[in-house]
Amino acid sequence: MSTKLTLRLDEQLIAAAKDYARANGRSVSVLVADYFAQLSGQAQRSPTATGSASPITAQLRGALKGATASETDHQSHLADKHR
Hints:
The protein has a domain at 7-47. By secondary structure, the chain is mainly alpha-helical. The protein is built from four helices and no strands.
């Protein structure tokens, strides 16, 4: 169940939080929920932390962890592909 929470914060802090959230594809609400979850000792991220990612996208998360391909490798692949 979601409940509305009103916070009174400095305008610059709110603007910075919105910029950060936008740059990371998340909402300020999710950022705050994750922070509160950490404060309460809950190691898991909030249920809304993944945003509106589809199940397929969620399954792919972390699939490239440890990958050794570089940007140059990718550019070479594209050059070969489009010859």
